Amino acid sequence: MTLLLVVNSGSSSVKVALFRGDMQVLEAQASEIGGQSRLRLGAQEQSLSLPDHRTALSALLEALTAAGHPPAQFGAAAHRVVHGGPDLTRACRVTPAVLAGIRACLPLAPLHNPANLAGIEALAALLPDLPHYASFDTAFHATMPPVATRYALPREVEARGYRRYGFHGLSYASIAERLPGVLGAMPGRVLAYHLGNGASACAMRDGRSVATSMGYSPLEGLTMGTRSGSIDPTVVLRLAELYGIAGTERMLNREAGLLGLGGRSDMRALLADPAPRARFAVQHFINSAVSHGGALMAAMGGLDAVVFTGGIGENASPVRGGILDGLAWAGVRYDAAANEGGETRLDPTGAAIPVLILPAEEEAHIAAEARALMKAGE
């Protein structure tokens, strides 16, 4: 069976994973591209000069070849793209028209799409005969109704693309696919939390997104590692007067959130820090998740299951416990020992609302979407 190469290109890193069928067989990463670059394959790491994405991908292909998996074994490459805009709402084979669509979304996701595009173009140049596919983080949220996507702005402004798109869609799509196998059926109304350095929540009705906390960009919504989350627009205007547009954008994306509140962006460090500032940052994060969760329950008309994923969602039991305590009014119950142990099911026997931890499997979902397209002859 041929291998499928999944590629996740960031601004200064490229992660790749090899899949044989639905099983991941190897992963590698090039980090700090353009700086003190490093390449990691499994447990082995080395320093290299990697000035750009093409050099980084070339080095990764060499490393995979040395590990016994040369490109001749690849059947296709599948790429993660953060923003598909209003038109790219499903996984697809990369064509010149698709590349143009991704390029058109650069103003919508200036921190993400340029790197995603660079990765696709670099790998296509290195392996021109290989079919390339793209999966979009925004695609899962294309099912949201207009009342959930439209800002209360003039029509001509919306026509420029200023609307709510939602993100972490690949993670949520993976949850929607796996939940029926875990619970025996798909719950009608699911509140899902993807909690990591970037954090969001999603309301799923019958496995489809009907509302989510992130909006036009990944900045809106929950308190995050370095992002402010939702904030009064007038505060943004005043900050822009004080610090300029570029300075304000940097502050809201890179200097706010847990970092701004607690002096650290890493939840593990904050939980280990007894200082009042750190305690407050953790509580702010929990309060934000509970508040947005309540709004999303209203959008679904109730609650039938809660799911946690992402680095914090999977590993920070005090944060999970705090959020679940905040949702107790909705009938949510959990077993403290199961939560502390990070078990898959956190709800006690007889509880009406299942509470689960499902590890993020975005790469596996991207691979599955590409395989489906290949099987369909696309």
From TrEMBL:
Transmembrane segments: none
Species for this entry: Szabonella alba
A molecular function GO annotation: ATP binding
Superkingdom in the source lineage: Bacteria
Keywords: ATP-binding, Cytoplasm, Kinase, Magnesium, Metal-binding, Nucleotide-binding, Transferase
Cellular-component GO terms for this entry: cytosol
Entry binding sites for Mg(2+): 8, 362
First-level EC class: transferase
Site label Transition state stabilizer, positions: 168, 227
UniProt-listed Enzyme Commission number(s): 2.7.2.1
Amino acids binding ATP: 15, 194-198, 266-268, 311-315
Location of the active site: 137
Pathway participation: Metabolic intermediate biosynthesis; acetyl-CoA biosynthesis; acetyl-CoA from acetate: step 1/2
Main location: cytoplasm
Residues bound to substrate: 80
Protein name per UniProt: Acetate kinase
The protein's role, per its UniProt record: Catalyzes the formation of acetyl phosphate from acetate and ATP. Can also catalyze the reverse reaction.
PANTHER family xrefs: ACETATE KINASE
Cofactor: Mg(2+); Mn(2+)
Subunit structure: Homodimer.
Cofactor, how bound (note): Mg(2+). Can also accept Mn(2+).
GO BP field: acetate metabolic process; acetyl-CoA biosynthetic process
PROSITE patterns (alphabetical): ACETATE_KINASE_1, ACETATE_KINASE_2
Reaction it catalyzes: acetate + ATP = acetyl phosphate + ADP
Compartments where found: Cytoplasm
